[in-house]
Amino acid sequence: MKKLVRVILLNVIVLMVVSNQALSFADPSSLYTTEIPENWVYQAQRSNPHLSVFYGEGDYDLLYFQNLGPISDANVEAFVERTLALYEGPGGLQKFYLDKAPHQVEVAGERGLACVYSYEERSGVTLWEYRIFLILPDQQGFSIALGGRAPWNDQDYPVLTETLSQWRWLF
Predict the structure, then answer these.
(1) Which helix (H) or strand (E) covers residue 100, if one does?
(2) Which of 161, 125, 142 is nearest to 83 (CA)?
(3) Digit-coded pLDDT (tens) for 88-129
């Protein structure tokens, strides 16, 4: 396990290069590349080959990309509906609330749906997440999420805007 973490960390360090106040990032599985503002820190202990996690300047600022592997949903609408039902249902997210209904987005040519929801974590802090859901070739589920401490404000988030503008799929 330690060797795997070291290999992942080494790959990420090698692939991250400082340029114009942003870090170029390529995920360990070679699925995508993007740029992350340099004040966001890669979290090697929270990341793995299928999940890349970055923390921002605030205590609850979070940006992450997750390859969920093969999913059985027929389309992205069904994927979102199923996932939100799990978040809202028993054993899901505490005090789940859908702040902004699913709406269409595009990430480097791939159509997806995004929504915003809030929930309460175990310590009682209310958090929000803007989550993008995609189904990639070979029926791979993929998610991009930006989150922080509530309340959520309906505004542009430069970190997400910049990250998505530099997003490139490698398939």
Answers:
(1) strand 97-107
(2) 142
(3) 999 999 999 999 999 999 999 999 999 999 999 999 999 999
Task: Count CB neighbours of 106 within 10 A.
Answer: 12
Pick 2-169's CATH classification: 3.40.1000.10, 3.30.420.10, 3.20.20.80, 3.40.640.10: 3.40.1000.10
Of 163, 164, 130, 169, the closest CA to residue 37 belongs to: 163
In angstroms and rounded to an integer, the radius of gyration of the C-alpha atoms of the chain is 16
Confidence of residue 2 (pLDDT cuts 50, 70, 90): low
- Tokens of residue 108, six digits: 């480097």
Question: Tokens 């791939």 correspond to what residue?
Answer: 110
Q: What is the mean pLDDT of residues 50-65?
A: 96
- Over 50: is that where the pLDDT of 41 sits? yes
Bridge partners of 58, per DSSP, are none
